């Protein structure tokens, strides 16, 4: 897993960029800086800690220090003719100084920064977030800082959900980023087909038992759980955005039979595929 050092070329406390192509995202990595992202355009899957989360446009994510993560955008957004629009803010946990968090008025921000270790996710953000992030990206005056505080304030007020389980442990990551990224990329390219444990272990140059322990330590999941949840995330996107029927979505997502698809989908989302589609279908009159 690769540790990214943002402080070598960026401002030591705060850096903002706007991405139209996910070259910075499709890498299993971690860094000391907190990552605050507003996704204005794009769809895909976020792998973070022990969570696999479908993400869509108008969503915000707050990722704590040294939490491993990987963004997998849908194939439609990997071409320059259909760019993503994503504003990424990196800042040190104490970028405002330790004394700032002693202020009574700053306690909610302090709690939010603490909770970022669980990774916070907010979907269906209103236009205010787009305006705030755009200002932070475009300006260089002191209001850049106050707008970031304002963004964090409203993000906390909208009660984002926590993605990572409470018992997830952040291990001291070894410098084996190539091994982990090779495995993740293989799964990303093949999850809609049959993914063999032998192939993953061989790619990692490990025995099957050693690889399973290694993978569980890095992601909080077994390889089978990881692949299944990635398939479910893909199915969720299809249920929201396509006209395919349930059986077509089942096989398109990599499941080999409908019974297995229904069982795993419900275990991950707490609802059936049919119910999920109904809840996420917008009815027009």
Q: Give the SSE order as H and E letters.
A: EEEEEEEEEHEHHEHHHHHHH
Helix content: 40-55%
Question: What's the overall geometry?
Answer: globular
Largest sheet: 6 strands, antiparallel
Mean pLDDT: 88
Under CATH at level 1, the class of the largest domain stands as Mainly Beta
CATH topology of the largest domain: Jelly Rolls
Amino-to-carboxy terminus distance: 49 Å
How many structurally independent domains? Answer: 2
What layout of secondary structure does this protein have?
Blueprint: E1 2-3, E2 14-19, E3 29-30, E4 34-41, E5 44-48, E6 51-55, E7 59-63, E8 69-73, E9 85-91, H1 107-115, E10 120-122, H2 127-138, H3 143-157, E11 161-162, H4 177-190, H5 197-203, H6 208-219, H7 223-241, H8 246-252, H9 258-269, H10 273-279
Labels describing this entry:
285 residues; alpha+beta; Jelly Rolls; Arc Repressor Mutant, subunit A; three-stranded antiparallel beta sheet; 18% strand
Question: What would your notes on this structure say?
Answer:
The chain has two domains: about 1-160, Regulatory protein AraC (Jelly Rolls, Sandwich), CATH 2.60.120.280; about 175-280, Orthogonal Bundle (Arc Repressor Mutant, subunit A). It contains ten helices and eleven strands. Strand 5 and strand 6 (about 50-55) form a beta hairpin. The chain has helices at about 105-115, 125-140, 145-155, 175-190, 195-205, 210-220, 225-240, 245-250, 260-270, 275-280; strands at about 1-5, 15-20, 30, 35-40, 45-50, 50-55, 60-65, 70-75, 85-90, 120, 160. The chain has a six-stranded antiparallel sheet with strand order 2-9-4-7-10-11, with helices on one face. A three-stranded antiparallel sheet has the order 6-5-8, covered by helices on one side. Helices cover about 40% and strands about 20% of the residues. Helix 2 (about 125-140) packs antiparallel against helix 3. The chain starts with a strand and ends in a 6-residue tail after the last helix. It has about 280 residues and is α+β, with helices and mostly antiparallel strands.
